[in-house]
Amino acid sequence: MSTIRNIVILTGAGVSAESGIDTFRAGSGGGPSLWEQHRVEDVATPEAFARDPELVLRFYDMRREAIQAKQPNPAHVALARLDAEWNGELLIVTQNVDDLHERAGARRVLHMHGEHLNAWCTWCDKRSRWTGALIDRPACPHCGERALRPDVVWFGEMPYRMDEIYAAIRKADLFVSIGTSGAVYPAAGFVRDARRCGAATLELNLERSQGSNWFDETRLGPAGRLVPEWVDEVLA
Ligand SMILES: [Zn+2]
C-alpha cells in the first residue's frame, strides 16, 4: 500500500444497511422492485411525481424523518477516520442519500444520488437544507415559490457531479467499492474506468456482486467489520 496516495471510495446501500436503512430491493422471481411496500415506479421516478406528487412527497417525508433517527455504524466511523487521517487525496462517492457519512465526521463526501436532507427548488434551481416535511408545499427560502421537491436522483434522472467523479477516478491509485450491487450504471462502470486508468481495485461486500469479476480483490462480510479492518491496514 506504500505507493498509494489517491483513493476513491464508492459506497452503496450495504454501508447504511447495518444502521437500519433500507433501500429498494429487486423483486424476487422477476416480480416488481419494492421499497417500503411501494413499487419503485410509483415513488422514485419523475413520472410518478408528475402523476401523484402527494404520494411521492409523503413517501420522502417519511424517509427523511426516519433517517434522522438512525445512527452511523462502524463502517461510517472507520471511513470518517480515514478521511481525517489520510494525507493524500480522498473522495468518498456515495450512492446513499442519508447523511450518515457526514454525521460520523467524514468531510470529503460526494452524494451522486442527492440527499434526503436537501430540498431542490425546481423554480430557481437552488438547494436548501431541509429536515421537515414537503407535503404542505412550503415556500422556497430563496425565491418564495412553492416548487420544492426532494433533492434525490430518481430513476431515469442523471446522477450528480459525474465530471468530478470521473476526474477523481482518473487520478486514483486505489478504487474501493463498499456495499454496492455493481448492477446500477453509471456507478457499476467505475471499477472498469479505474482499472483502465491504472488504479488497484478492491471490493468489500456482503456477498459477491455482479461486478466482482472486475476487482483485483474482493473481501466478503458485513461492512461494519470489513471496513474498519481495511482502514486499519491502509493507515498502518
Ligand atoms: Zn426557489
Task: Report what the structure shows.
The protein has 236 residues and is an alpha/beta fold. The chain has one domain: TPP-binding domain (Rossmann fold, 3-Layer(aba) Sandwich), CATH 3.40.50. Helix content is 33%, strand content 20%. It has helices at residues 13-17, 40-43, 46-51, 53-67, 74-85, 100-104, 162-171, 190-196, 223-235, and strands spanning 7-11, 34-35, 38-39, 90-94, 109-111, 114-121, 127-129, 148-152, 174-178, 200-205, 217-220. The strands form 3 sheets. The protein has a 6-stranded parallel beta sheet with strand order 5-4-1-9-10-11, sandwiched between helices. The protein has a 3-stranded antiparallel beta sheet with strand order 7-6-8, covered by helices on one side. Helix 5 (74-85) runs parallel beside helix 9 (223-235). The protein is globular. The model has no long low-confidence stretch (mean pLDDT 92). It binds zinc ion. Zinc ion (ZN) binds at residues 121, 123-124, 126, 140, 142-143, 145.
